[in-house]
Amino acid sequence: MVRKIKIPYDVGTLELNIEERNLKAVITAGSDEFWTEKTESEMIEDALKNPIGSPRLSQLAKGKKKVVLVTSDHTRAVPSRLTLPLLLKEIRKGEPDADITILIATGLHRATTKEEQRKMFGDQIVDHEKIAVNHAFCPEEFVRICTLPSGAEFHVNKIAAGCDLLITEGFIEPHFFAGFSGGRKSILPGICNETTVNENHSYRAIASPYAMAGVLKHNPIHEDMVYAARKVNVQFILNVALNSEKKVIGAFAGDLEEAHEKGVEFVNRLSRREPVEGDIIITSNGGYPLDQNLYQTPKAVATAEACARKDAVIIMCAGCREGMGGTYFEKLIVKGTVEEIDAYLSGIPPKETIPEQWCAQIYARILKKHKVILVTSYLDKQTVEKANMIHAGSLDEALAHAWKIKGKEAEVVVIPDGVSVLAVKE
After folding, report:
1. How many CB atoms sit inside 10 A of residue 327's CB?
2. Angle CA 288–291–295, to nearest 5
3. Residue 218 designated active-site
4. What span, in angstroms and rounded, lies between the C-alpha atoms of 292 and 287?
5. Which residue has the higher pLDDT, 326 or 354?
6. What end-to-end distance do the CA atoms of the chain give, in Å?
7. How confident is the model at residue 307 (pLDDT cuts 50, 70, 90)?
8. Catalytic residue (choose from 74, 135, 155, 175)
9. Active-site residue among 109, 155, 370, 391?
10. Residue 222 known to be catalytic
11. What is the pLDDT of residue 426?
């Protein structure tokens, strides 16, 4: 009997056809089964009316003239069309004349285009609000604040450093080396310069046994991020939890750490799953926008790694409509064999960290142990093979190749959205 499973891919899905006798498990996050009577807007409004560990935003805004609201960029599925109008309304309820800047947290990503802003925020906000974009590679746009616990120098966007009230919004999901996204991550890496982001993401930091999905305690990357966000006085956050359809299923507002911790508890409860080991692991980055380039894909591949037996094959489904995703990453991931790449990266001191090297580092770690087959519509065979992976133009082609490697009796584990699942042993 053949089982049909939908795998998120680009702006649609791929259909996996697999014999039941080979299918060992399908692992999904509990977010897809979570149900609430409240609408998305009601959940967000309730969170803003009942902040965690903080006064209401309208109270915090009283008397504040320069307000900065940090939001995510085009690579993240934050429902800003819903959240931003409610945040702006709450700020102006407390201070009608506030000078508000919406600052897009790009980290080291390219700048978000005006067209993307319209898709993310809606025409009303783009046409009537002040919007700025973080440019990590323009040193004149940043100011040094302090030295972080790791020894990294903390440089933050001047717009945020010079405001009276700093607010962030984002969403929470498991993160492959920061533990969870959201909260403090809007500041570092969101609105830092390349120097700060690079050192926070150094080979040494990424190699820490605590720098992994689901882990915050003793995580050096997380600790730097929290310290940075406190140093610039983030006074209020709004974070949401999403299901696979990118719909809001939970909202958490208030104090930088307390509200984020409540959100993490919620997401952890829904996403945590016992790993099931298989010979072939099939996953995706949950479709667009997170599968728009190869640079983002180690997120799901790292989840697949947690379920991969010795010498297992990982099939990663990612459209990659924007190609490799970063000039530095592209050069590093094709630099040589995975052993050569890892040896090169391991020799780079923290203060000389190359932008985007962390994703090459994680891929090298995984590729040393497992073959990775990349199902993609936009990257060509030659490019994928240079990156030490196997190219497939379809899921059927990828699975056929995996059968050849592992045999027709191989056990298959499917994680349709590898980013939403936290595969850890209890």
Report:
1. 11
2. 145
3. no
4. 8
5. 354
6. 33
7. very high
8. 175
9. 109
10. no
11. 62
pLDDT in tens, 389-400: 999 999 999 999
pLDDT, average across residues 198-221:
96
Structure confidence by residue, pLDDT tens digits, 192-203: 999 999 999 999
What's the chain look like in SS3? CEEEEEEEECCEEEEEEEECCCEEEECCCHHHCCCCCCCHHHHHHHHHHCCECCCCHHHHHCCCCEEEEEEECCCCCCCHHHHHHHHHHHHHHHCCCCEEEEEEECCCCCCCCHHHHHHHHCHHHHHHCEEEECCCCCHHHEEEEEECCCCCEEEEEHHHHCCCEEEEEEECCEECCCEECCHHHHCCCCCECHHHHHHHCCHHHHCCCCCCCCCCCCCHHHHHHHHHHHHCCEEEEEEEEECCCCCEEEEEEECHHHHHHHHHHHHHHHHEECCCCEEEEEEEECCCCCCCCHHHCHHHHHHHHCCEEEEEEEEEECCCCCCCCCHHHHHHHCCCCHHHHHHHHHCCCHHHCCCCHHHHHHHHHHHCCCEEEEECCCCCHHHHHHCCCEEECCHHHHHHHHHHHHCCCCCEEEECECCCCEECCC
User: Cα(110)–Cα(132) distance, rounded to whole angstroms?
Assistant: 13
Q: How far is residue 3 from each of residues 17, 18, 287, measured CA to CA in Å?
A: 6, 5, 21
Share of the chain above pLDDT 70, in %: 100
Largest CA distance in the chain: 69
In which band, very low, low, confident or very high, does the pLDDT at 207 lie, cut at 50, 70 and 90?
Answer: very high
Q: Which residues have C-beta within 8 Å of that of residue 384, sequence separation ≥ 6?
A: 374, 376, 390, 391
Q: How confident is the model at residue 75 (pLDDT cuts 50, 70, 90)?
A: confident
Using only C-alpha atoms, what is the Rg of the chain?
21
Instruction: Mention every residue, 6+ apart, whose C-beta is less than 8 A from residue 209.
Output: none
How do residues 1-59 score in pLDDT, each as one tens digit? 899 999 999 999 999 999 999 999 999 999 888 988 999 999 999 999 999 999 999 99
- At residue 66's C-alpha, the angle toward residues 60 and 69, to 5°, is 70
282 and 317 Cβ atoms separated by less than 8 Å:
yes
| Cα-based angle 6, 11, 17 (whole degrees, multiple of 5) | 20
**Cα–Cα distance measured from residue 25 to residue 5, given in angstroms and rounded to the nearest whole number:** 11
Residue 182: per-residue pLDDT: 97
**Banded model confidence at residue 126, pLDDT cuts 50, 70, 90:** very high
Cα separation, 342 vs 344, whole angstroms: 5
